[in-house]
Specification:
alpha+beta, Peptide Deformylase
């Protein structure tokens, strides 16, 4: 089922999420709805709070970020589509990169965000199997962006106050629901 995505300004987007204790039909349903909602909105990641669920879970499918003519590693190909339940970032390197990010909850706004280029993540997959994996580059970035969501952090929190001032009018319009998107949204 395609669910509305919560817009910037909704209080749920600022809450830290609760852990998931067991693999239930409700969680399987949630994951299915998240995939459907994310693909409908043409996103590459979606966190549960973005659809109003206060649970530590997000999904990614970063394949659209890789240029069609670019060769990608087998690791990236195999791991660019994943479910992360109760993720914990256990390691980050000191090598940072900047990339122009956007967010389904903050449509039509993009900004340069600095993030570590390599991370190690401990998480449960959709079958509740424990994983410990290292991700680099675009995959690390998408994971960090979605992981921020389950901690109540938005990418606009990571930009300079000067840049935030520049986009503040657009953020206020989103908060008031004065935007049009091709996907369903819910406003506070």
């Amino acid at each position: 089922m395609i669910l509305p995505i919560l817009a910037y300004g909704h209080p749920i987007l600022r809450k830290k999420c609760n852990s998931i204790d067991e693999n239930t039909d409700e969680i399987k349903n949630l994951i299915s709805n998240m995939w459907e909602t994310m693909y409908n909105a043409e996103g590459v990641g979606l966190a549960a709070p973005q659809i109003g669920v206060n649970k530590k879970i997000f999904i990614i499918d970063a394949n659209p970020l890789f240029p069609k003519d670019q060769e990608i590693s087998d690791f990236d190909r195999l791991n660019s589509k994943k479910v992360f339940i109760n993720p914990e970032i256990t390691k980050m390197n000191d090598d940072y990169c900047v990339f122009n990010e956007g967010c389904l909850s903050i449509p039509d706004i993009r900004a340069e965000v600095k993030r570590p280029n390599m991370i190690k993540v401990e998480f449960l997959d959709e079958n509740f199997n424990h994983n410990s994996m290292i991700f680099e580059g675009l995959l690390a970035r998408v994971i960090l962006h979605e992981n921020d969501h389950i901690n109540g952090v938005l990418f606009t929190d990571k930009i300079s106050s000067f840049k935030r001032k520049i986009i503040q009018n657009k953020l206020n319009r989103i908060k008031k629901g004065k935007i049009e998107t091709v996907y369903k949204m819910s406003f506070s």
